[in-house]
Structures are given as structure tokens and as C-alpha cells.
Amino acid sequence: xxxxxxxxxxxxxxxxxxxxxxxxxxxxxxxxxxxxxxxxxxxxxxxxxxxxxxxxxxxxxxxxxxxxxxxxxxxxxxxxxxxxxxxxxxxxxxxxxxxxxxxxxxxxxxxxxxxxxxxxxxxxxxxxxxxxxx
Length: 134
Ligand code: FES
What we know:
11 strands, mainly beta, 3-stranded antiparallel β-sheet
């Protein structure tokens, strides 16, 4: 089974509509965003494909004014909730790195995105062996 990067509950996501989370890999701290897309949880690495900066730099939030798109606060790129595709801004045509969302009952678990996938087989990124799954 793929490693778990982080987990929460459907109730917690429904209350917040978006949650930021962190995990360790290769000795570094990485962050992600879990959003409630009209009842469907979607997760992305919190890393803009333009300059590799977090979307929420300087503590700003990542929603657009109607809470329908994610926005990078550095240069204003906008991303689709359902796919992470950059819809406008300096990275148009690129996309956020989607993470796998695994739902079991009320629990939402976030797992790494596969680097490559062939049918039922997936090549996953290496994890930090010194960190424990949450
Ligand atoms: S770093 Fe995100 S738009 Fe430039």
C-alpha cells in the first residue's frame, strides 16, 4: 500500500473547505492543499509550476474571490479545482501536482502521486525512511 502523507476527516474538510498539510520527504518538509470541490476532496502539492513557490506564500490564502479556483499569491496564476490545470497566468498550460486521495468512511488519506502508472502498477516517489506515517 502507498505511504500515507497525511490524513483528516470529511467533517474537518467540510468545515474548513480547504486545509493545508505537511509531510517529510528526502529530509525536507513539503506542503499540500486539500480542497472540497463541491463534495469531492482533491489534493495537490502546494507548489506552483511557475517558480516552484508555495501558492500561499507570505501567509496569504489560495482561494479566488468566488472559491472556485486556486490562486498562486506570487504572480496570480489560477488553477482549476478539479484538475489542478493552470487556467491563466504565467504558467498557463502547466498544472499542479495532484496527490492521491483515498477515502474510507469519514477518513481522508493523502498519498503521493505516482511518478508513472501502468495499469495496476504505480512507481511512487521515494519517502523519507526516518519519518513515520501520520
Ligand atoms: S510562482 Fe506562482 S504564478 Fe509565479
